[in-house]
């Protein structure tokens, strides 16, 4: 049964998939990992982004990635508004985070049903010249529909890493994650810093959505699979460490791809949630946690 | 309400339900009432863990589906009667609840909630891949056409669900007013402090999680006979997670009355909306109401009423103060 070719191909597909998972997980890594806001609705925003890209692609034949980048300002604003609402209703009052969790669960549900009403349950996909082609390296085939999302996902991760570690605002975000009170003593407003971070996290959903619909057809309920994946990656990656997020995403991608290849695709989803349960139970601080 | 009064009211309701099933002949009402009562059970069960103890469980579909699939297995294996299905479903789901209880040792707050969500997806994958229960395609079941005394079987199922709902509410009310309920409330307010004061937090949580899980399984156990077709997509539906959490939140999550109010209001509204508007739109309504309540009235309808009553009391006292 076991063949080296099959194994190498599954491994390659897993690495490519992992790069894409990193793109989906970045939003959770920032909002949950750094800001301690369990944004369950992030994957459904990724879905929303995918459908916007689909609309632009099917109406105007626009390139999916270009469309994804074009919509980032919209998601940035949406994220800022959502955080404002969250802050005013929960964080400012010091209400327990559990109610916030229910709030995001409700938002998830509203957006999902909204997408369902607008686009129906049919699978939607995008078209572009390069999607069907692939690159061959010896026995290993790298399909462009996986390669491009991986490259884009890794680039997005690198950009965010550079932003957080090199720029003034990025460092402010890391500061607010460590100690919001100290930040206030430095004369900065933690609310504004957090809003910026949350808006940025949401903005990544637009690009991630473009990558998602490039990899395969989408339907609204798919966001639930990505809740497990994104939270598994965030927890495993050490809650907010961007480098850790990338490594964890690659590991999850490989694990899923190998399982799907050797046990059947139906088990793929269970892997991510199994990893999540295991990570939560055994090592909640993640592989790279402090 | 004293225990005896509760039992009397419960007996009255059961008899009334039976009498109604003698008179009303339109089958639709039984289907609708069954669904609403099922939500009363689910919401009450969720509230024992979510409302009293403060652990938000997104995994309702896992427990509900486990109850339903236990029935499916029992029917396929030995054509078990409904009574056995109920006991089996509750037992298996209760065991899963016990497992969840041990999970709370390591996971608190947000992490616990995400783990329950993960649990539901993992379990769904297991059932999608399990051919014995029909796998992803699902499985058709033949239910008995009639039941003695009741005529049509759906009327009988309605009466069964009515009794289950009363049972669930009774259990919740009993827990709430016993030392267990006070202990759970202590956990909700501050788990560390409760532990330090000598409240046996782990033992209490290991009471709350299996009871909550078993009641959810109980709600799911008659489901295969109710719909006569079981597939993973319908029993693991996210609607169960949203509804079982939205209903106590809307009704008021600190008393046993809250989930009933929430389930009856929201359940009825959904039934009406499904018939008159569309089934997708009514889910949208649930989501919007849930978010609105979480933001504006976190104590739910019961809390709102209590606040109003307190204000009126305050007004009265104020008026007296001026007079004297």
Care to describe what's here?
The complex is a heterodimer of chains A (290) and B (324). With 290 residues, chain A is mostly helical. Chain A is built from twelve helices and two strands; from the N terminus they run αααααββααααααα. Chain A has one domain. In chain A, 75% of the residues lie in helices and 3% in strands. In chain A, α6 crosses α7. Chain A is globular. Chain B is 78% helix and 2% strand. In chain B, α2 runs parallel beside α6, α2 packs antiparallel against α9 and α13 packs antiparallel against α14. Chain B has a single domain, classed as ABC transporter involved in vitamin B12 uptake, BtuC (Orthogonal Bundle). Chain B is mostly helical. In chain B, the strands form two sheets. Chain B has a two-stranded antiparallel sheet with strand order 1-4. A two-stranded antiparallel sheet of chain B has the order 2-3.
Q: In angstroms, what is the radius of gyration of chain B?
A: 20 Å
**Rounded to an integer, what's the Rg of chain A over CA atoms?**
19 Å
Looking at CATH, which topology of chain B would you report? ABC transporter involved in vitamin B12 uptake, BtuC
| Residues in β-strands, percent of chain B | under 5%
* β-sheet strand percentage of chain A: under 5%
CATH class of chain B: Mainly Alpha
Number of discrete helical segments of chain A: 12
Q: How many extended strands of chain A?
A: 2
Pairing-aware structural class of the strands and helices of chain A? mainly alpha
Nearest-integer average pLDDT of chain B:
87
Largest interface: A-B, 41 and 40 residues
Distance between the termini of chain A: 42 Å
Number of helices of chain B: 15
Termini distance of chain B?
36 Å
